[in-house]
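CHAIN AND CONFORMATION:
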Amino acid sequence: MRLANTKTKHEVGLDFVLRSINIQTPFGHKLLKALKPFAPGQEEDLRREFNKTNRFLEIVHRDRKSLNPLLHQLMEVKEATFTIERSSENVLSMVELFEIKNLLLKMDKIRALMSELMPEVPAVFRLEDILGLLDVLDPRKERINTFYIYDEFSGQLGPFRAEKRALELEVRREMKQRKQELEARYGLAFTPKFECPVQKSNEKLMQTVKEIPELFMSDQDYMTVTYAMKPSQRVCELNQQMEELNTRLDGIEFHIRKGLSSEIGKWKDTLLANCERIAEIDLALAKAVYAKDHDCVEPEIVREHILEFRDGRQLEVEDVLQKKGKEYCPVSISLKEGVSCITGANMGGKTVCLKLAGMVAILTHYGFFVPCREARVGLSSSIHILIGDSQSLQRGLSSFGSEMEELKDVLDHSKERAFILIDEIASGTNPSEGAALTRAVIEYLNKHPYICLITTHFDGVNPEDRGQNLQVVGLANADFKKLDKELRYANRKDRIDIVGRYMDYNLRVIQGEQTVSREAINIAKMLGIYDEIIDNAKKYM
């Protein structure tokens, strides 16, 4: 199901929420990226999705700090699904075996922590026991975040490794003895690595060292020449024995890695299922934390095609205002099938209301709690927003041409239970034609089973018997004397902010003949437009 296009997701703020949610694991990121919306008929599935969030939200409210150990483990989970898939038909490397062991350790800890956090862990969060495989990779049960091919993996490893250590010790003794002999004979000083650095400025020593047959030049720089000891016949024999031994050890270790890989392959389905459950835990926990931090609530899901919420906040706009030290004015709205028109002067927040309704709707469909005090939502088949498109303008289309092109696309893709949001349709043409076209579009939409929310400047475009007319309260209840006093002594930069503080962004239902709020002239005057212009404008009203 394609609920919404890319533009709609961006404009209503879904992208903002998805970027803001704190996912910890690569599995969680995959799940978030692959999220599918819930469609009409999937109400019960959506309620189960909300229940996942609620299981963690209960803990967040009760004791948020108790989640820290789980968060810590999730943060350390690394991507390993490719390695798991490879294990069935490939011999894993040491690095890959380490990846699997590390993942198993995390799975074991996450499984234990979930049992501590929840009396009864839901199946979707319940990791399968992987201790059997962990014991195979960690036969000493040290549970250390490293991987080593232990002697316990094969009865041959211990004796061969002991023999190798004995050969290495004998080589070391032989080299140390020759080092002591050369130091005593020539007065040289060797490093623990059996190297003899000589300063180029010491010509006498340089000449002496060059003539010593047991040494060869291994390195040099601008100031120093480094000599190393040539291996003796005995050292060469010992090194040859070690090479043969290493070849045999490599064969044994390859056989061990092959067996371990095969064993991991047997657990592939279990491991992949656990990865999916870690993703579910990660996403549900992130949703719960986000809901708590942003005062979001679980919307009530109903069969009826409606959208209702009280004290809703558009999170992206709220974030911008908070960064500026300003408060967001919550808005309530009740929408049913038919067209609801929002009127009001510019600066009244009509477009923000539009985006807020879209955010509440789309977050619900994707299984997120919504930024409201309460909400009731009936699922839609699709969500569309028609709003100014700078990309179309860049393509050379006029604002009106862009609008009409997008309107056609919206209407083409709208079916039963569509949710359509339109911002100032036909504002890019002359008022007479714009009003006529707006009314015609509204009449068309009113004939279809859509929820439609439209912002407009035009009067009387939505018949009261078929639609709902809303108006932004704006400055209707403002104390203009107080406002005028503040503006009189304010600089140009602060005036808009001052007017904004006096704005009431709540919506009221308009009964009877609809009339668009006449606040534009007042706002223009308050912002310093010359009296001559204001007086002449009033003559034409």
In short: The chain has three domains: 22-130+267-290, 157-231, 298-478+504-512. DSSP finds 21 helices and 13 strands in the chain. The chain has a mean pLDDT of 86. The first helix runs from residue 6 to 12.
